[in-house]
Amino acid sequence: MSDRPRHIVIEVLWKPTDLADFLGLPETTLRQWRHKGYGPRFVRLGKHVRYRPEDVRDWLDEQETDPAAA
């Protein structure tokens, strides 16, 4: 057995329903975005889709627009 301390990082992955609730969008919108290659990055675990919260935050930051540019 190693004397090294074990660091376990627990990160919650969001289900599409979690992200849909967070964004206030229908889950079908997220499905369409994935099909079109749009939206936050996602991870496919077999047949399951999950989102990393930091990927969602990064994507949201990229969507920010300058009100003066509108």
Looking at this protein, list some descriptive labels.
41% helix, mainly alpha, 70 residues, two-stranded antiparallel ribbon, 2 strands, single chain
Structure description:
The chain has 3 helices and 2 strands. A hairpin with a 2-residue loop joins strand 1 (43-45) and strand 2 (48-50). It is 41% helix and 9% strand. It has a two-stranded antiparallel sheet. The mean pLDDT is 90. It has a domain at 16-62. It has helices at 16-23, 27-36, 53-63, and strands at residues 43-45, 48-50. With 70 residues, the protein is mainly alpha-helical. It holds the Pfam family HTH_17. InterPro entries: DNA-bd_dom_put_sf, HTH_17, WH-like_DNA-bd_sf. This is Excisionase family DNA binding protein. Residues 16-63 form the Helix-turn-helix domain.
Main beta sheet: 2 strands, antiparallel
Structural class: mainly alpha
Globally, the shape reads: extended
Query: What does the radius of gyration come to?
Result: 16 Å
Low-confidence stretches: none
The helix-strand sequence is HHEEH
**Strand runs, count:** 2
Please report the distance between the alpha carbons of the first and last residues.
61 Å
Proportion of strand residues: 5-15%
Average predicted confidence as pLDDT: 90
Query: Helical percent range?
Result: 40-55%
If helices are DSSP runs of H or I spanning 4 or more residues, what is the number of helices?
3
The largest beta-sheet arranges its strands as 1-2
